[in-house]
Write a structure and sequence with these properties.
The complex is a heterodimer of chains A (299) and B (384). With 299 residues, chain A is mainly α. Chain A is built from 13 helices and 2 strands. The longest helix of chain A is centred in the N-terminal third of the chain and has 34 residues. With 384 residues, chain B is α+β, with helices and mostly antiparallel strands. In chain B, a hairpin with a 2-residue loop joins strand 11 and strand 12. The longest helix of chain B is centred in the middle third of the chain and has 18 residues. The chains are: A mainly alpha (299), B alpha+beta (384). The structure holds adenosine-5'-triphosphate and magnesium ion (MG).
Chain lengths: 299, 384
């Protein structure tokens, strides 16, 4: 019998290869291009960098003209270093606040009666149905002096003067947490909803108070969702530039803003170098996170 | 051993007949509904200290619900549950001195086997050394020594069940609820665990309430058992009473095998009741049923092992009927023979033959014409 075993096997290999091809095409190739640009020099030509690739024959000459000049500049100018650190700080704060708000929210959703859950889920993703920009602009209206927030607090007699939140770090954090909260809530909800109720009953049966049962059963079992949510909030937060641009002030310059202004002033090579360092800065905490997860024996 | 052999109907341990005995658990008219379903209906029941109580019944009859109310996970819609005479209906689960082994095991997947077993002990705040000692003891008890560091998903189904058992036992509760504790164990291990449980009970004085589908298990282990049907307790009693004197047709058919004959009371002379059945003629039974009226419809229950099978008509003053063998089922220890009595349109009766010899030629074959006979004490009268 000549069983046609080969085609399925080949198909299987192709399927396994698909994500790698995707990665090669849409991540590694652009990354190589950005890296090449970061090693180039700014030029007033079009495209605005040099050297240009002029055929295999002059490959040696091409490589010889690449250098680390842009990275040296990043290292020497403290503006960039401070900005990276500040971005990490804002991203970390955003993640923590989103966690503090998102966990109870996801918990309440998972504990809600079954037929309510889809409705709550829709409510969480509802903001996505309007443009991100419009929603951030709306926050300007809320946070500006004598804006909606001041009016409400004033009419309740809680404040007598405007809070002057707009153009501060607080405003940036409010905007970031608001924008990224769903990315924290959704993975947390997914793990909490799957949690086997009988485990909590078993804990109670063995003498655990509800609080102890939460700390010893619910929390450890929701860590995968917590890590996923934290990564989904942290990564885009570090590179965010629209929210600090609109809600922040002169001293809330995130690395994303710096990258954008550098790029806009047509220094593509320096902007590329900023982007590469940003990537490294992002990969490091993620690698640590992954390490922590592996140490726990989790997935 | 304190267990009396079945049939004697007399035991050393029967607090339920002692009016001075104080029950540890008392259900008083407990009812639980889930929407339109009445899972438990007007259950009144007393469990006594050191009692081994088995709950038997078909799937969905409310066994788990009854236990969950005792553990505190469901609140009764009506009635009360008392522990040592105190109403515990409003006491939350973590404050009840009751432990439950869950039907689904409910092992903590993120904790090792040892930590699962230690979970309840840690909540009590026992010293570390004591916890470690008890965990070892429990692991040894359920024959899982050396597997303490595994995670539940690295165990077989039977091993998981044993961890769940060990975890529930570790706290040495006053009352231990076991929801099908041995369903996934092989027969050898099941017998060993049954023995261990009984041993443990006499050592610790724990009261057990066990749900099981396995009648043999219920019979061997329990002091009393209850048969449940659609949320109601149909009969409560020691295993031999349930088997030999079932309260009605449901219990008789649920526990063990039984032949049911329909008939009418023909005469009553003292203890001797004569019942006229269309198929087997007059059947004589030795039964005290002063309430039976002449001409009243009754059912006769006849256990297969209480019927004799022979080729020749048996002599003597026995109930007897002729028939033809329709089927022979070999079950190892016994052979179940199905005999058609009362002609081809009659009724099939089951007869159990004990296989006493290994190789003797089988004395009966298909289509043999045979006689069934039984003693006046073999049959029992059931309400229709
Ligand atoms: N949480 C619940 N919501 C609705 N109905 C329920 C719930 N729990 C149990 N029931 C219903 O109550 C009845 C009794 O269920 P229970 O689990 O007590 O049965 P059981 O005797 O333990 O069955 P099994 O032998 O299959 O475990 C069933 O009809 C079941 O569908
Ligand atoms: Mg059940």
């Amino acid at each position: 019998m000549s069983a046609p075993v080969a085609p399925p096997a080949r198909l299987g290999r192709l399927l396994v290869a698909a994500p790698y091809l995707w990665l090669l095409l849409f991540f590694l190739a652009p990354f190589a291009m950005v890296l090449r640009m970061a090693l180039s020099d700014a030029d007033t030509a079009l495209p605005p960098y040099a050297p240009h690739f002029e055929g295999l024959a002059r490959l040696g000459e091409f490589f010889a003209r690449l250098d680390l000049e842009n990275f040296r500049l990043l290292a020497e100018d403290s503006l960039y270093g401070q900005s990276y650190l500040y971005s990490l700080r804002v991203a970390a704060l955003t993640t923590l606040i989103a966690l503090a708000i998102g966990y109870p929210l996801a918990y309440a959703m998972a504990a809600a009666p079954r037929h309510w859950r889809p409705v709550l889920l829709v409510l969480v993703v509802l903001p996505f149905w309007t443009s991100f920009l419009i929603r951030v602009y709306a926050w300007i209206g809320i946070l500006r002096p004598d804006g909606l927030l001041d009016m409400m607090l004033g009419s309740l007699g809680l404040t007598s003067e405007p809070l002057r939140l707009l153009n501060t770090e607080a405003a940036v954090l409010i905007g970031m947490v608001y924008s990224y909260l769903p990315f924290m809530v959704l993975p947390l909800y997914a793990t909490l909803e799957k949690l086997d109720r009988s485990l909590l009953e078993a804990a109670a049966d063995l003498g655990a108070t509800p609080a102890t049962a939460f700390l010893t059963v619910t929390l450890p079992l929701s860590l995968p969702g917590l890590f996923a949510g934290a990564a989904l909030v942290f990564i885009p937060s570090v590179g965010e530039f629209v929210i600090p641009d609109l809600l922040g002030g002169p001293d809330t310059t995130l690395i994303g803003n710096l990258l954008w202004t550098t790029f806009a002033s047509r220094d593509w090579p320096l902007a590329s170098a900023v982007a590469i360092v940003l990537l490294v800065v992002l990969v490091l905490p993620l690698a640590l996170l992954q390490q922590a997860r592996l140490a726990r024996g989790g997935p | 051993m304190r267990k009396a052999s079945p049939g004697s109907l007399r035991r050393a341990f029967q607090p339920w007949d002692d009016t001075n005995a104080k029950p540890i658990i008392e259900f008083r008219g407990v009812t639980k509904r889930f929407g339109a379903v009445t899972a438990v209906c007007d259950v009144s029941l007393s469990l006594y200290p050191r009692e081994f109580f088995a709950l038997l019944g078909p799937s969905g009859c409310g066994k788990t619900t009854l236990m969950r109310m005792l553990a505190g996970f469901e609140t009764p819609d009506e009635g009360q549950i008392l522990l040592d005479g105190v109403d515990i209906t409003a006491v939350p689960p973590h404050l009840r001195p009751v432990n439950m082994m869950f039907q689904s095991y409910a092992l903590f997947p993120h904790l090792s086997v040892a930590d699962n077993i230690a979970y309840g002990l840690k909540r009590e705040g026992l010293p570390r050394a004591e916890i470690a000692r008890r965990v070892e003891e429990m692991l040894a008890l359920v024959k899982l020594d050396g597997l303490g560091r595994r995670k539940p998903d690295q165990l077989s189904g039977g091993q998981r069940q044993r961890v769940a058992l060990a975890r529930a036992l570790a706290k040495r509760p006053k009352l231990l609820l076991l929801d099908e504790p041995m369903a996934a164990l092989d027969r050898k291990l099941r017998e060993a665990t049954q023995f261990e449980l009984m041993d443990l009970q006499s050592k610790l004085g724990t009261t057990f309430m066990v749900v099981t589908h396995d009648q043999d298990e219920a019979m061997t282990m329990s002091d009393r058992m209850a048969v449940m049907d659609q949320g109601r307790l149909v009969q409560i009693g020691p295993p031999d009473v349930i088997y030999e004197a079932p309260a009605n047709r449901y219990v008789a058919e649920f526990v063990g095998d039984i032949n049911i004959l329909e008939g009418r009371v023909a005469s009553i002379e003292g203890d001797l009741v004569k019942v006229e059945t269309g198929i087997t003629g007059t059947v004589e039974l030795d039964e005290e049923r002063p309430t039976l009226a002449i001409g009243a419809p009754v059912l006769i229950g006849l256990r297969p092992e209480k019927i004799e099978l022979s080729h020749d008509e048996p002599a003597g003053d026995l109930n007897k009927v002729a028939g033809e063998i329709w089927d022979i089922g070999y079950l190892g220890d016994v052979t179940m023979v199905q005999v058609m009595v009362g002609g081809d349109q009659g009724q099939l009766l089951k007869v159990a033959l004990t296989n006493r010899t290994r190789r003797a030629a089988r004395p009966f074959a298909w289509e043999d014409q045979v006689w069934l006979s039984w003693d006046v004490e073999a049959g029992l009268v059931l309400p229709p």
